[in-house]
Amino acid sequence: MASLEIEETLEAVARHLARARRALFITGAGISADSGLPTYRGVGGLYNGEHTDDGIPIETALSGDMFAHHPEITWKYLAQIERTCRGAQPNAAHRAIATLEQVLPGVLVFTQNVDGLHAKAGSRNLIEIHGNLHELCCTACDYGEYIEDLAGRELPPTCPACGAVLRPNVVLFGEALPEAAMDRFLDELDQGMDIVFSIGTSGVFPYIAEPVLWAAQAGIPTVEINPEPTRLTPYVRYYLPLGAAAAMQGILDRLNRHGFHGI
Ligand code: OAD
Known about the structure:
- By secondary structure, the protein is α/β, with parallel strands linked by helices.
- 39% of the residues lie in helices and 16% in strands.
- It is built from ten helices and nine strands.
- Helix 1 packs across helix 10 and helix 6 packs parallel to helix 10.
- It is elongated and about 55 Å long.
- 2'-O-acetyl adenosine-5-diphosphoribose binds next to helix 2.
């Protein structure tokens, strides 16, 4: 895409946002790539189809079934993911979304990320649909704790109250999505959206792709930010082939130039 076209797209998106009352930001691993975190697939992908050291696909290692029978295997890879997040800070994209929440009447972040960076940036109306890697809960009793990181923890971590294995509050492969969070998301969608963003996600899951497709079909402006085209690209109105931080900063700068809401 020529740089003039990117300029025009950034400008058009900023104009839509300036008029929007409610905006939805659907995010994936790519938004945290600019904070130095690896993604799962595509550019900078952590696994990219390779089998793990244990000779099994990562989806098997990180499944609810594996956790039930061999929590030490699941924890080995959860700990690998946690190490990649350690010390990571929100970037300009996370911060831009948190800023927009201060100035637009309704901003919702629906993220697949378990890294907690949206909350750290200040987003409050946030649905972490795959959970949060920093929240641990006991598999046997109601013990729970919040951890900054797993440094110095024995793996798998055990419950100080009853000795059972702890698990992170994340959705493992093959497990159901948290029902209350999904209901909240559907309620928000029912209230309507004026603009829908898909940022840094390959959109492999239907509950990620469908809201974008629904918005596109309903004529609601849709924006995709991803250096690589995805399965959603043909359907969105605006595609920005940029990193998340550069794109969101570019949009915020243009809103600023228009003197929008004192950003
Ligand atoms: P993926 O790893 O599937 O996709 C990340 C996307 O980010 C890719 O399309 C990249 O091209 C893009 N990307 C890379 N760098 C970027 C940047 N700087 N700015 C913007 N985009 C960039 O990640 P998700 O779509 O989040 O689930 O994956 C969904 C789920 O698959 C994860 O939540 C995880 C995984 O299995 C569970 O663990 C349940």
